[in-house]
Design goal:
Helix 1 links the parallel strand 1 and strand 2. Helix content is 40%, strand content 16%. The model has no long low-confidence stretch (mean pLDDT 93). It has 373 residues and is an alpha/beta fold. The protein has a seven-stranded parallel β-sheet with strand order 3-2-1-4-5-6-7, with helices on both faces. The protein has a six-stranded parallel β-sheet with strand order 10-9-8-11-12-13, with helices on both faces.
Length: 373
């Protein structure tokens, strides 16, 4: 069995975000076919169901990304265990990955979650021009690079001239291969929890409000979509999941009143998604794959989103579960919400290609065929 060493540069257990679940899902699936060891930070919470070993060799400090002692620490680990392959999450440790490769000769896969400089540029972070050349250099050094979508892979091969033979797609994955059978039970559970009447439609907004693009998306719902819905939809509730907003946010009191239900951070987000009639994702910036859309479709809940939200998701395989409208055309959003709620025609059979593409077991099967024996 192939021995693999993965380096996850931050806490990912328990998985509290799409990025965490992307790492957790990959490792769980990979560990079924390889002997997997993960180097990460000490603040991971490991339960008895973890199918791989985690070594807390990375500091919790931000300065771990420049820790020169890691070359010796990880190099010694490799020499003692003779790993066949490294997997490095993100390009942040590209400098270290290259040094370890020179010391050991072991090939490595650089697993990207986004084109990082583009994401930080969209968030107006001042350091993105510094990240761009470093990220490009990291891609040039790696033996293999995985991308979360064809969009990112095509950018790397065309704009940065990365050899296509070294590139592969590892999409955000899901564990199940069909819509869960307990969708009706989840719907009833959430309705009872929040006192939602059977005649009320359920709209869901899911995203941490301490992240500005999510907060701005919710503000668009509050200001531009919700008022006309009162005449077009009838009885409805809008559940908001994802944690508290920053102090002083001007809409804080607004979302504490009807028709909003401020659920905060919830442990059973899948139940909330399955209970919803429609997921709203009017995000306008931020970049990267919106994993909440993939999760929502996989749970049988349709999504209304923007082109930015749908970026990297192949609409040819989402059946009629993903609908895209331009951001800021908010008058059309209210009409579309009403149409989707009043005339639902969603068929699980249309998602066969979706589950084939996004199921982790299928993904790992494709990945292993690309990696060296």
């Amino acid at each position: 069995m192939k021995k693999v060493l993965a380096i996850a540069p931050y806490r990912f257990l328990p998985a509290c975000s799409g990025g965490h679940r992307y790492i957790e899902g990959m490792y769980q699936a990979l560990s079924l076919h390889t002997q997997l060891t993960v180097v990460s930070t000490a603040d991971n919470t490991i339960d008895g169901q973890c199918t791989y070993r985690i070594l807390p060799l990375l500091s919790n400090s931000f300065f771990r990304y420049a820790d020169l002692t890691l070359r010796g620490t990880i190099g010694d680990l490799v020499r003692r265990n003779q790993y066949d392959l490294f997997v490095w999450e993100h390009p942040y440790f590209a400098w270290l990955a290259n040094l370890i490769k020179k010391d050991t000769g072991t090939p490595y896969l650089l697993r990207t979650h986004n084109i990082e400089y583009q994401r930080f540029r969209s968030l107006h972070k001042f350091w993105w021009p510094l990240l761009e050349p470093y990220e490009k250099w990291g891609f040039q050094q790696a033996d293999f690079i995985s991308f979360i979508s064809d969009n990112d892979k095509n950018f790397a091969t065309t704009a940065w001239h990365i050899e296509p033979s070294r590139c592969m797609e590892i999409p955000y994955g899901i564990q199940h291969d069909k819509i869960p059978a307990n969708k009706a039970q989840a719907r009833q559970l959430i309705r009872e929890r929040y006192g939602i009447a059977q005649n009320e439609q359920v709209l869901l907004f899911n995203g941490p409000l301490n992240y500005a693009p999510n907060r701005e998306a919710l503000e668009s719902i509050i200001e531009c979509m919700e008022p006309p819905l009162r005449d077009q939809v009838g009885a409805y509730k809008i559940i908001i999941c994802g944690g508290p907003a920053p102090k002083g946010w001007k809409y804080q009191k607004r979302i504490q009143n009807n028709p909003y239900i401020e659920a905060g951070f919830v442990d059973d987000i899948n139940n909330h998604v399955m209970a919803a009639d429609l997921l709203l994702n009017p995000v306008q910036k931020g970049g990267g794959i919106k994993t909440k859309i993939i999760e929502s479709i996989s749970l049988g809940t349709p999504v209304l989103t923007t082109p930015s939200g749908a970026m990297g998701i192949d609409n040819k395989i989402t059946g009629n579960y993903m609908h895209v409208l331009q951001e800021r055309a908010w008058d059309q959003w209210a009409l579309k919400i009403a149409s989707l709620l009043h005339n639902p025609s969603f068929q699980e059979e249309s998602l066969a290609a979706f589950f084939d593409h996004y199921n982790w077991a299928k993904i790992i099967e494709r990945v292993l065929k690309r990696l060296p024996n």
